[in-house]
Amino acid sequence: MHLIKLLLPLHDNRNQPFDRAVFQVVRDELTEAFGGVTAYFRSPAVGLWQEDDKTINRDDVVTFEVLSSELNETWWTNYRKQLEERFRQDEVLIFASAVTKL
């Protein structure tokens, strides 16, 4: 079993919030593809990363989680590219971990 996590920004690079409908599309797509999804909206996480020696960037992010018995890396790579376009991001982070369902 695999736990796949996606981090999506709440705002674009001009600090304008994305419409909630954009996130609903992601929820619908993941539910259709995997039979369910968990989305964390109420307490957005804060992502920080160092761009260079002097610049630290910040994003408020929403986390989506999916459980899948198989990890189709090609599907996820293609989906990540779609999300990068949709959210106008240089990079959307998607992580996968092997987990044991108890």
Can you describe what's shown?
There is one protein chain. This protein has two helices and four strands. It has about 100 residues and is an alpha+beta fold. Strand 2 (about 40-50) and strand 3 form a beta hairpin. The chain has one domain (about 1-60, about 70-100). Helices cover about 30% and strands about 40% of the residues. It has a four-stranded antiparallel sheet, covered by helices on one side. The protein has helices spanning about 20-35, 75-85, and strands at about 1-10, 40-50, 55-70, 95-100.
Shape: globular
Q: Write the element-wise H/E pattern from the N-terminal end onward.
A: EHEEHE
Question: For the residues shown, what is the average pLDDT?
Answer: 87
Low-confidence stretches: none
How many helices?
Answer: 2
As laid out across the biggest beta sheet, the strand order is 2-3-1-4
Rg value? 14 Å
Structure class: alpha+beta
Q: What fraction, in percent, of the residue positions are helical?
A: 25-40%
Write the layout of secondary structure elements.
Layout: E1 2-9, H1 20-34, E2 38-50, E3 56-68, H2 73-86, E4 93-98
Notable features of this structure?
102 residues; alpha+beta; 4-stranded antiparallel beta sheet; 4 strands; 39% strand; globular
Quick synopsis:
By secondary structure, the protein is an alpha+beta fold. It has helices at residues 20-34, 73-86; strands at 2-9, 38-50, 56-68, 93-98.
